Amino acid sequence: MTASTSRSPWKALVGGSIGNLVEWYDWFIYSSFAVYFASAFFPKGNDTAQLLNTMGIFAVGFFMRPVGGWLLGRLGDRKGRKAALTTTVTLMSVSALLIAVAPTYDQVGYFGALVLLVARLLQGLSVGGEYAASATYLTEASAPGKRGFSSSFQYVSMTMGQLCGLGLQIILQHTMSSDTLHSWGWRIPFVVGAVGAAVIFYLRRNLLETEAYEEEAGVERGTLRGLLAHKREFALVIALTMGGTVAYYTYTTYLTKYLSNTAGMSKNDAALVSFCALTIFMLLQPLAGALSDRIGRRPLLITFGIGSMLGTVPIMTALGNVSGFVPALLLMTGGLVIVTGYTSINAVVKAELFPTHVRALGVALPYAIANALFGGTAEYVALWFKKGGIESGFYWYVSACAAVSLVVYLTMRETRHTALTGAEKDAAPAGTGEAGERLTARA
């Protein structure tokens, strides 16, 4: 049995995805439950101001992602994808536990907010490396010709993590009073996240290293010097991520609060709308990923760019005035269908841009920078516009970010035929593979 056949793509897919699920469950429940614990860590007063402070800490977590991308991306290239995957989930378990036991403002003043901040910094460190470790592992462990399909499970697992958080929120909303949730009930999901991450740590220890990584033994790996040899790809990842990450966080983590604060829906109904729309969104990811294996990555990215640039303002405007469950569900689902053109394949596109010895670092660092600048600040920018009385300005901001990324999608090379292993390079016909794609792009 050869090395390639002894590695089960499905086992790798499940092993990489289930850990990613717990990582993003812990990451997203902070946002999902922020409406309940915002008042616990800051002085009583304006609800929007409390939420703004809490989302500020949420955004700060994103600024640790470049640090996590550098440290854990370097670890993934030097010590292996498996080492990075187990490290990220350990950090996430610790951070979730810290939030679960953090003291409130009434108990210790602002020290509780400091504990919350430290926990978010650890989460940012962890997720900064998790995205690249998961994207690289899923891409390299995939069967040739199925990388788009396999890597799409990164966002399947991310969405499942968010659905688990929303599902738990819905259960707690129907089994606890609002006062209980604001008092201590919000701590429950963080306890669940800490325990879940600890369990996944042991599951990830049994994963096999990828063939592509093991083929490059003896090569200098994971260095900034090696990464800087690919400056164009580095800049490309930042630019193509910009529009996608803003749109993703707008239509996922922020929209539940938007439906509640702007449209006037109850928190329960808003959570249920998000749960149903995200379930549909999750099921679309493998279909779009498989489509990219047949027609290429660029057509999907271009479709997203055009749809997000032209569709955000009318969709968000309509959602702000929505009055029923079904219209809200249809509008949110429409937005997420557009976002699928980015989410289903962005991981594989970034991994295909870099060679093996800097792939994890090449994916992690520029992606984390883009998320810190645009994804992590999306909710904060949205709330800033709302507080200033010009909420519609945020819709145009999202559209403008998508327009910038669209230019990149239209001019970048196709990556679908990039060979990752020696066997793939030997099997690739003339004119295909990474070199062939580069020549095609230049022609």
TrEMBL record:
The lineage of its organism: Bacteria, Bacillati, Actinomycetota, Actinomycetes, Streptosporangiales. May be a proton symporter involved in the uptake of osmolytes such as proline and glycine betaine. This is Putative proline/betaine transporter. It comes from Actinomadura barringtoniae. Belongs to the major facilitator superfamily. Metabolite:H+ Symporter (MHS) family (TC 2.A.1.6) family. Residues 12-416 form the Major facilitator superfamily (MFS) profile domain. GO terms for cellular component: plasma membrane. It is found in: Cell membrane. SUPFAM superfamilies: MFS general substrate transporter (SSF103473). The keyword Nucleus does not apply. The chain crosses the membrane at residues 21-42, 54-72, 84-102, 184-203, 234-251, 271-288, 300-319, 325-349, 361-382, 394-412.
